[in-house]
Amino acid sequence: MDFMEANINNYHTIQNGYLRNLDIHLMNRYEAIYRSNLDANFLLTKWCPACVMDCLTRLYNHYISLPQEEVQDLTKIDLTNIVKPKRGRPKR
Question: DSSP states of 15-72 as a string?
């Protein structure tokens, strides 16, 4: 949940009524956290801004509603398989 705390500014922007563009690797992390804590069958429609805002709102509302002791004791989520995609043309 350190990821949630490190990116709390996304929740604050949603509270103000907008959401900045998020990189795909950030959305993949949010989706993995959502699946592990709220709904294992959830699929995030990443091209839909309203869907992303709704997902982040539900996720941060759940995160904020947890007691602080529970936040500290949450199991670590394996996010090692989510990598930032390489940019540019493939090498020959």
Answer: HTT------HHHHHHHHHHHHHHT-TT----TT-HHHHHHHHHHHHHHHHHS-HHHHH
Q: What is the three-class DSSP state of 83?
A: coil
- For 14, the token pair is 């949603």
- Listed in sequence order, the residues at least 6 apart from 36 whose beta carbon sits closer than 8 Å to its beta carbon are 77
Q: The pTM is what?
A: 0.68
The CA distance from 24 to 87, in Å, is 12
Mean pLDDT across 58-73: 76
